[in-house]
Amino acid sequence: MAISIDKSKTALLVMDVQNDITHIDSPMARQLGFAQMIQQTGMLNNLRRLMDACRANGVPVVHVLIDLEGGVQPRWPHRGGFFELVSGGKVCKRGTWGGEAAELVKPLPGEAIVYKCIFSAFVSSGLQELLDAQGITDLILSGVSTDAVVESTAWDANDRGYSNILAENCCIAGSQEAHDISVQRMAGRCDVAKADEIIAALA
């Protein structure tokens, strides 16, 4: 089934596609499997094509970057391996190489950038205010990782009344299995499509 997109009400979210999380030279990206999965799937190339199509068709591209010291988080979780890994706030630190967007998907001048401090793109970021000011009701979701920021944002967006399109091959998890399971969970509450299908709908 072809996807229908109202370009005047849709934005693309590019979430957590930062060097510390994606680059092969990042120890964390390798440890979590993200760097390897990006290389295996060509995810960044898919995402860049989708970003270019959105730009060419007037669909806003919003860059969501994690900054563990940003926003207002009343408490910081401490249980679980992930939080042990990122404790100390050095991961994706703003102003460092690790905190920068991956080279292939860097923001263009004038594109919106919001910073969030945990999983959902809406937490302490001002994202909803930015979207609502532009009359955005539909979101195209992309980023790293499928089973963390993307899925968390998908549920949060639904709770806030947004409709989601999951750009399935513009996301990765630490393994193909983890990605596929997460996509399956989201499928009942998102339209799931590949980059080329979304690009065709934007034309």
Helix-strand pattern = EHHHHEHEHEHEHEH
Q: What is the CATH topology classification name?
A: Rossmann fold
Largest sheet: 6 strands, parallel
Tell me the name of the CATH homologous superfamily.
Isochorismatase-like
Question: Which runs of at least 5 residues are low in confidence (pLDDT < 50)?
Answer: none
Task: Count all strands and give the number.
Answer: 6
Number of helices: 9
Helix share, percent: 25-40%
| Global mean pLDDT | 93
Examine the secondary-structure arrangement and name the CATH architecture.
3-Layer(aba) Sandwich
Overall number of domains: 1
Structural class call reads alpha/beta
Percent of residues in beta strands: 15-25%
**Measured distance between first and last alpha carbons:** 16 Å
Global shape: globular
CATH class: Alpha Beta
Within the largest sheet, what's the order of strands?
Answer: 3-2-1-4-5-6
